[in-house]
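in:
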């Protein structure tokens, strides 16, 4: 990490806050569901009667994992019957709120174990930029809205906290880190997958013109932080250390390790699909005219995902929570004054580990994906 940059990053707000505010990632995962179901149809289970292992890389507090995992488990049951135990392993950074995750896994009415008692949830607190499983243990990998977070922050960003708002050398440093981390993520997952296994990665993305859709929301937040510096709530030094390690990629960047057309570390691309995710809060507002709900919704979303990373640049732990309160309040005010939709982009990439049943490894030619 660049000296003086944020101490920790990419950890969501705890206490169930992320679960309450993560409707946008839930929408993105919903768009990816047909690809997940197809991946389950295609995956090959090799070897003996071992339990089927599903890995959920970057689960956070778990609520958004339930619907995709229920769908995956149903598909596996249709293919492999009711008797095979299914282990579901949720992975996140050690600082994640695992208490909230376990609460969801054991109490949420939509938990997969309520529908299928032959499932066995567990969790690992370790970065997915390290090996998380011994080799060839995972049949199905799922990772939604998580691999957008870099392993570390490569540079401070003058005047903003967002990589896509950076230019020149700073942008180049993020581009390099983004490429390196994507390769590292893929290599590690390739080792963990069993031959014939599938990995489905869903990411908030840039479209082919480099737009994310959230830019005005981030610009509002940046202006709100600048007001806090002007009013003396935070210092200019603290502000300068605020950087988000979120790096949305274009489709070409996701496909780059597979160029010109070959597998990468034994993984082949089956799908790579860019979708547009309409802003559900905007749709509600258009229908019911409830401006405050619209503003609350987006400010809460921003706070639960990004405020902990920004606040970790503050020297004094006691001020971190009041920083998040103030940022959210200012953001709400700005959004209510200038409501607009934040339609965003989602990229789903499905990868197959070579070596399984030949019929199930249908590599889609890269030319058709571009
Ligand atoms: C936006 S949340 C996504 C949660 C959930 N998958 C969803 O779709 O709503 C991103 C999660 O990725 C996790 N994450 C970020 N970097 C990580 C890393 N290096 N290793 C493991 N988890 C990471 C964060 O801690 C966070 O819980």
């Amino acid at each position: 990490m660049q000296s003086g940059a944020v101490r920790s990053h990419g950890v969501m707000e705890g206490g169930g806050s992320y679960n309450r505010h993560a409707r946008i990632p839930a929408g993105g995962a919903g768009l990816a569901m047909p690809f997940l179901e197809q991946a389950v149809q295609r995956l090959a289970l090799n070897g003996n009667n071992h339990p089927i292992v599903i890995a959920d890389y970057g689960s956070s507090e778990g609520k958004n994992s339930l619907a995709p995992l229920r769908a995956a488990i149903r598909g596996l049951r249709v293919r492999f019957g009711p008797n095979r135990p299914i282990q579901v392993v949720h992975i996140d950074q050690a600082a994640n709120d695992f208490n909230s995750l376990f609460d969801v896994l054991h109490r949420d009415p939509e938990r997969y174990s309520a529908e299928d008692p032959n499932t066995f949830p567990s969790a690992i607190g370790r970065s997915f930029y390290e090996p998380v499983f011994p080799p060839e243990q995972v049949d199905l990998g799922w990772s939604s809205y998580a691999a957008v977070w870099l392993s570390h922050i490569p540079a401070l960003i003058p005047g903003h906290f967002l990589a896509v708002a950076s230019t020149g050398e700073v942008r180049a440093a993020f581009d390099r880190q983004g490429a390196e981390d994507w390769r590292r993520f893929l290599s590690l997952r390739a080792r963990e997958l069993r031959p014939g296994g599938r990995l489905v990665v869903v990411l908030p993305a840039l479209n082919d013109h480099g737009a994310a859709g959230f830019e005005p929301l981030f610009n509002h937040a940046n202006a709100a932080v600048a007001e806090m510096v002007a009013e003396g709530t935070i210092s200019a030094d603290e502000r300068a250390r605020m950087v988000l390690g979120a790096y949305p990629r274009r489709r070409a960047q996701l496909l780059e390790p597979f160029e010109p057309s070959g597998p990468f570390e034994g993984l082949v691309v089956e799908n790579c699909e860019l979708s547009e995710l309409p802003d559900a809060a905007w749709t509600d507002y258009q229908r019911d005219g409830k401006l405050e709900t619209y503003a609350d919704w987006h400010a809460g979303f921003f706070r639960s995902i990004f405020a902990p990373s920004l606040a970790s640049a503050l020297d004094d732990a006691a001020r971190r929570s009041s920083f998040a309160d103030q940022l959210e309040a200012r953001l709400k005010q700005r959004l209510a004054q200038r409501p607009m939709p934040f339609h965003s982009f989602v990229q789903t990439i499905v990868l197959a580990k070579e070596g399984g049943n030949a019929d199930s490894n249908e590599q889609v030619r890269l030319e058709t994906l571009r």
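note: The chain has a mean pLDDT of 92.
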